[in-house]
Design goal:
5 helices, two-stranded antiparallel ribbon, mainly alpha
Length: about 70
């Protein structure tokens, strides 16, 4: 099975955004963002797209799937 990684923390830092601010923009809890950042939770496709849109990046730049 593959491994999902992400660069959310990097993009949050570049946008000077807290986990709480990102959570509010995505309509999820801060705990959800923490879990996604730590690769403890794989986000739904909808959440992944919301995050990509917030950072104005292609989804593949934020989420990386390794076989």
């Amino acid at each position: 099975m593959g491994q999902m990684n992400n660069r959310i923390k990097k993009f949050r830092s570049e946008h000077d955004m807290t986990q709480e601010e990102l959570a509010n923009k995505c309509d999820v809890t801060r705990q959800t963002i923490i879990a996604v950042e730590k690769n403890k939770y794989i986000p739904s496709l909808e959440l992944a797209f919301k995050i990509a849109l917030i950072f104005d990046q292609p989804i593949e730049k934020i989420f990386i799937y390794n076989k």
